[in-house]
Amino acid sequence: MKLGCIADDYTGATDLAGLLRRSGASVRLHFGLPKESSDCSSDIEIIALKCRTEPIDTAVRDCGEAANWLLTRGAERLYWKYCSTFDSTAQGNIGPVAEALMAITGQTQALYCPAFPENGRSVFMGHLFVNGQLLNESSMKDHPLTPMKDANLARILAPQVSGSVEIWDRVAQKSGTGLPDATHIIGDAVEFADLEFLVTNTPPNVLLTGGSALAMPLPRLLDISSSDSVSDPRPGPRAMVLSGSCSQMTQQQVARYVEHNPSYQLHPETLNEDTIRDCIQWIHSIDQEETPLVYATASPDEVKAAQSMLGVSEAGAIVERAMALIAREAFDMGVRRFVVAGGETSGAVTQSLNVSEVIIGREICPGVPWVFSGSNQDLVGLALKSGNFGSPSFFDDALALLED
What global pTM score does this model have? Predict the structure, then answer.
């Protein structure tokens, strides 16, 4: 192993894995902290955690354990991966985890760059833009767990860390001005060449952190690229779509899919054992050749109403638990292809299916590959999508790719 990566949620980890797989390097993704006996023979090992909105102490502990697992197995470099929209609060968890990893590795600085130009995320003068809009003017301002009210990444990061924060803007980069002396550095990037510049010009004493795109130049830098092509495995034909994300793009994807496919909506305010049982009975009634959608996707106003009644964390936890139970029941019915929208939902579904590690398949869209777990006799395919990724036809596109 040459590169070890830690991701703060499951969809972000598959996003990272898919982009790194483009290099031809072998990539293995572990869901949750790996066991001591877990295989680590790939060029790149990624550990996916569910620590984006966990208490800081929990996030720091879990990421520290993941880092030690990777380093003791020979990782030459660590990468800390978080969302390309810098999802966090004034308390964390991006900054506190970075400082904890620096303490473990002995690195003295950290570079932060969530830019993903291919998916419309760019950083200019330290401000994050999403498809041309400032972060705080995009749909992320209404995120149910981490509403982003500021686009200035230095201002977001500063309350989370104890060290100094500076911006390494694009003008300074182009003029040849080197890395600032600050402990925490926000790097500008508006195109892929800028990401290559950041990675190439970041010395070993600096911890690299960012979205998935910043890691893409690393395989070439570490000399682990390959041109070999590998065929994807083929899981059984029964499929299902599960959507817990309430992002703007997922709302479009759900609205498009329900026009032509059987669907069942879950509402957190009325979600209980009876509702889950009714949903499962409905799934049993669907023709096996059809691909049903079960979703809790809702508008920002509906989300706020549910959170007001139940509490922010409880509203999310209720949906996650339901999705996990429904996914497990669907698996027992013979479903082997799961398209899942939303980071927290993906984590819940993956855990309910007892998927601990996967191999990486082809990308459905930038940042979202199919991943596969199990033996050829009982293979499971998962498409784990971050909320705002993909086009309106993503669900159909994902299912069609396995038939190609």
Answer: 0.80
